[in-house]
């Protein structure tokens, strides 16, 4: 953000197939109203930006207008025909309000820009009619729920409060002090599997008709940056201090700990998670010009401190009560125990240099090198070399080669959680994601995670044809050794008995942990074209994009001897998690967007195509259901009218054709309850319509 490294989330992504096992930046914590523009560097950039920049960098530039402001309000909802239940639904009502204003602080360019946002989104539900799984007790109370919507499939309810500021104050002859920050407080809800009235996970004294636990999340995300930049003799400098923090508290309601009996609490806190990152850096740069050549030389040093902490849940959330024939821990996610708590920190020191040169009007080069030393993983030298040659003013060829070093995140090392899944027979089981430092994980073959090392190659061209058309095509290959991913879920009586005998921990029915799963190679291409044209009394812009990426696995991690000794059929990294890295995301995406505007009207539309994707489950016992979801199209459009120079109104919609992904087959749709998979890029909510009012001043 504004060129300064953003902190990651405290949570590991374990519930979504796309990006599973990663600790991403939370883009929703960056207010939309604060964004001036977004820059994307698509080459490997670890030598310039450090660990994580394996495939490039996204730089969000904040609004820096020194005067004026805007107030905006919008409301929208999903309105859709849900074919699995043959009903028309309106849900997911979303309201949004934002306000921002800027003021000049000095006569020579100082400013303060501040903003506030509030977002509220209601839940959506695309679940089907329950057919009652056959392994559930076929009792009158259970069977009475057949044909009802007992499950929830869709987006959970959420509320967001965002605030931000961006400021600069000149000082001295040629320097500026700057500061910016973002704040996000989000409360979310998520649905879980339904527990039937006569199931072992229920006490009818508490829930006579069964229950569906609701997960609650309390998320706090803050970034604050302060620094100074300017000229120091013939050198430019930029010195800054950057602190970011993300903290998350998991809670449950409408749940219980069945082992505690009918007096069990129904609300629980299951754990606290936090990640802090503090970065101090100094950049120096200078430009040298000699005849037709120019050279931009840069140096920098950076110190980064990271800390990751987790806190235990309520004692009742992990307690093993007196009813030993019932599941222990809170349903839909047992709490972290004091033994599961993590407190990890490390220091990262970096020194880097870059040289960008132009030789005449046709040829330019970029060279960069960085040495980065991790307290826990040692040091590594990374580099990048790139070149661009313009054969003619309208056509240029470009390419680059870079390598990168990516240490495991502290979250991947220390994160633990308990969740609920289902087996080959469909029964609900409690499973745990164990940290690689957990003694149970070690006994199951876990080892210390190794850093990922990568090489990124790219080659492409860019062309400007006349004043109307520009286009670019880039080819890339990214090789990553020791790719970090989650293992398969290890299930079965052999696991349960082993953990009970060796560690005195009962009821562990499923376990997995992080591994250096395989070496991967991703090859792909990206194409972008723009056509600009005056049309009528306005301006037309047509943009077409197409991308392709295919990931292949090499040197897949072998199953350790510890697991094979428990059960020779165990596989540590197999078809399900291989699918996560290779075929779960569409290989191709394409989009055609058109926009036209004049002083009064703005019209825009976008047609997107997402290629097919494949879903693979491994339920054990040779039961590996698979489904390929076909390519899908989506149409979005918006019309905006400016009533006055200050007031405007707009109406629009996303997925206007109310398109849905393919329905899941009988192996995956969980007896009618989950007709759509979470995999599809177009989601499973159907059409969304909205209106907006904006006032600018």
TrEMBL record:
The question of whether Electron transport is a record keyword is answered with no
The parts of the chain that form a coiled coil are none
> Which intervals of the chain are annotated as region Disordered?
308-340
- Any idea which UniProt keywords this protein has? Cell outer membrane, Membrane, TonB box, Transmembrane, Transmembrane beta strand, Transport
Q: Which organism is it from?
A: Stenotrophomonas humi
Residue ranges annotated for the TonB-dependent receptor-like beta-barrel domain, each copy included = 173-656
Its placement in the membrane is given as:
Multi-pass membrane protein
Q: Where in the cell is it found?
A: Cell outer membrane
Instruction: Respond yes or no to whether keyword Acetylation is given for this record.
Output: no
Identify the GO cellular component terms for this protein.
cell outer membrane
This one is known as: Ligand-gated channel
Domain TonB-dependent receptor plug positions: 2-57
Pfam families reported for this sequence = Plug, TonB_dep_Rec_b-barrel
């Amino acid at each position: 953000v504004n060129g300064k490294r953003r902190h990651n989330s405290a949570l590991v992504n374990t519930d979504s197939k796309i990006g599973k096992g990663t600790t991403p930046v939370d883009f929703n914590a960056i207010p939309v109203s604060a964004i001036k523009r977004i820059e994307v560097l698509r080459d490997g950039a670890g030598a310039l930006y450090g660990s994580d920049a394996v495939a490039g960098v996204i730089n969000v530039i904040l609004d820096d207008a020194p005067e004026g402001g805007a107030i905006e309000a919008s409301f929208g909802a999903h309105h859709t025909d849900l074919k699995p239940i043959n009903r028309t639904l309106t849900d997911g009502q979303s309201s949004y309000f934002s306000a921002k204003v800027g003021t000049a602080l000095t006569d020579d360019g100082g400013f303060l820009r501040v903003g506030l946002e509030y977002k509220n989104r209601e839940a959506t539900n695309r679940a089907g009619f329950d057919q009652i799984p056959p392994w559930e007790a076929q009792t009158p109370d259970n069977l009475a729920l057949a044909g009802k919507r007992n499950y929830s499939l869709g987006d959970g309810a959420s509320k967001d409060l965002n605030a931000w500021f961006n400021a600069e104050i000149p000082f001295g002859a040629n320097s500026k002090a700057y500061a910016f920050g973002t704040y996000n407080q989000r409360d979310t809800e998520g649905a879980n599997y339904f527990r039937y009235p006569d199931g072992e996970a229920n006490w009818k004294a508490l829930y006579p008709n069964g229950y569906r636990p609701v997960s609650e999340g309390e998320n706090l995300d803050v970034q604050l940056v302060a620094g100074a930049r300017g000229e120091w003799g013939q050198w430019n400098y930029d010195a800054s201090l950057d602190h970011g923090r993300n903290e998350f508290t998991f809670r449950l309601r409408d749940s219980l700990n069945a082992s505690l009996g009918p007096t069990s609490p129904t609300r629980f806190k299951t754990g606290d998670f936090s990640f802090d990152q503090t970065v101090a850096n100094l950049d120096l740069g200078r430009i040298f010009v000699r005849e037709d050549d120019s050279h931009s030389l840069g140096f920098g040093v950076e110190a980064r401190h990271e800390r990751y902490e987790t806190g235990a849940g309520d004692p009742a959330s992990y307690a093993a009560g007196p009813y030993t024939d019932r599941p222990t821990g809170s349903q839909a996610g047992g709490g972290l125990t004091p033994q599961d708590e993590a407190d990890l920190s490390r220091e990262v020191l970096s020194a880097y240099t870059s040289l960008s040169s132009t030789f005449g009007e046709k040829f330019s080069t970029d060279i960069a090198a960085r040495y980065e030393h991790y307290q826990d993983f040692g040091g590594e030298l990374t580099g990048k070399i790139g070149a661009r040659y313009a054969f003619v003013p309208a056509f240029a060829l470009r390419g680059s080669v870079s390598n990168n070093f990516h240490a495991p995140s502290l979250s991947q090392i220390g994160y633990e959680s308990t969740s609920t899944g289902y087996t080959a027979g469909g029964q609900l089981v409690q499973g745990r994601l164990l940290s690689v430092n957990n003694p149970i994980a070690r006994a199951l073959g876990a080892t210390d995670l190794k850093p990922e090392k990568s090489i990124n190659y790219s080659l492409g061209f860019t062309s400007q044809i006349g004043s109307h058309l520009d286009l670019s095509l880039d080819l890339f290959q990214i090789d990553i050794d020791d790719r970090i991913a989650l293992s398969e879920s290890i299930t079965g009586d052999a696991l349960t008995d082993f953990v009970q005998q060796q560690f005195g921990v009962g009821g562990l029915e499923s376990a997995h942990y992080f591994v250096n799963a395989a070496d991967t190679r991703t090859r792909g291409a990206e194409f972008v074209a723009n056509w600009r044209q005056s049309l009528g009394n306005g301006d037309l812009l047509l943009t077409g994009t197409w991308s392709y990426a295919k990931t292949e696995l090499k040197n897949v991690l072998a199953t350790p001897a510890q697991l094979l000794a428990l059960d020779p059929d165990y596989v540590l990294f197999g078809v399900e998690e291989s699918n996560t890295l290779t075929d779960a995301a569409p290989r191709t995406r394409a989009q055609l967007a058109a926009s036209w505007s004049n002083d009064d009207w703005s019209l825009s539309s976008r047609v997107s195509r997402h290629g097919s994707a494949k879903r693979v489950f491994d339920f054990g016992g040779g039961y590996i259901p698979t489904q390929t979801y076909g390519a899908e199209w989506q149409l979005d459009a918006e019309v905006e009218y400016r009533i006055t120079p200050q007031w405007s109104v707009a109406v629009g919609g996303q997925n206007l054709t109310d398109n849905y992904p393919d329905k899941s087959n009988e192996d995956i749709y969980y007896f009618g309850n989950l007709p759509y998979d979470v995999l599809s890029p177009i989601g499973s909510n159907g059409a969304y319509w909205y209106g907006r009012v904006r006032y600018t001043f």
